[in-house]
Amino acid sequence: MKRSSNPFRPTTSESSDFSITPRSNQQFEMKTRSSKIPLLAVPERLDVKDMLISASDQRANVSVWRICLAAAVGIGAGVLLSTYEVDGDWAQWIALPGNLFISALKCLIVPMVFCSVVVCMGELVAAGKAAQIGSRMIMFFTMASVASSAIGTTFGFIFAHTYNAQMTADESNTAEQLTFRCHDGSYLTMTANGAMACRPQVNVTADLNALFTLNDTTGFFTTSGTEFTQLSLLPFVR
Fold first, then answer.
1. Is Repeat given among the entry's keywords (predicted)?
2. pLDDT at 173
């Protein structure tokens, strides 16, 4: 505390004396503090991460345990639905939120990425770091593409034996091919001049001259799409 003869006279120092009443002997020292406004951290230079992360993303509050909980719920629901083999309308209603989410991502991700790349490239050009950051970005993207291709190919070879890829041919437009066997065991073939002859040694699966395409013009042969009819020989037996 300080004592002053005139309590109302301001002082020139940083500290000032203040009296409660004009005739009070109690003097209180008051000091002023200069509050400093914190300056925002400004990055000295731009880097590759500036192409991917903006200032608003750095302030985003992402809860890790919520992400893990949602992943666990999704895995459990998938295992449960695959165990009970839910199909039909129930499966479509359950898959509806996921399909809407994927459709929304497909609708928004392309313009969002385009706008982000344009803005970031503009900032890089304005900062004079376009050539340096662009070359590093191309190098990193190339390395990531090669690494992802190598990982995918490796896992494909590892798990290839666990999948049985059975390709079914379309038999609707398949032409029936026949071979004709002669009385001596040879096969009927077509010669180069168009004549028909029986040849003893013919590979019926590889020689196209020994294969004849069936063209059922009268519908005599029964196909797999028609029902079999039972024939009776009693009217012809005498």
1. no
2. 58
Q: CA torsion angle for 121, 122, 128, 132 (degrees, to 10)?
A: 0
Rounded CA-CA distance 12/36 in Å is 22
**Phi/psi at 209 (nearest 5 deg)?**
-75, -15
Kindly list the distances between the CA atom of residue 166 and the CA atoms of 158, 163, 169, 170, in Å, as whole numbers in the listed order.
19, 9, 10, 13
Q: Parse the chain into domains and list their residue ranges.
A: 1-30, 60-156, 178-215
Give exposure, 7-29, as e/b (b: 16+ Cβ within 10 Å). Answer: beeeeeeeebbebeeeeeeeeee
Q: Are 202 and 211 in contact (CB under 8 A)?
A: no
Over its C-alpha atoms, the chain yields an Rg (Å, rounded) of 44
Identify residue 235 by its one-letter amino acid code.
Answer: P
Q: What is the pLDDT of residue 150?
A: 95
What tokens does 220 get? 């005599």
- First and final C-alpha spacing in the chain: 146
Which alpha helices (DSSP H) does the chain contain, by range? 55-58, 64-84, 89-127, 130-158
Residue 97 CA to residue 86 CA, distance in Å, equals 16
| Tokens linked to 102 | 């994927």
Blockwise average pLDDT, block size 10, the chain, 238 residues: 48 47 53 51 51 51 84 87 77 86 89 88 80 84 94 90 67 67 80 80 71 72 61 56
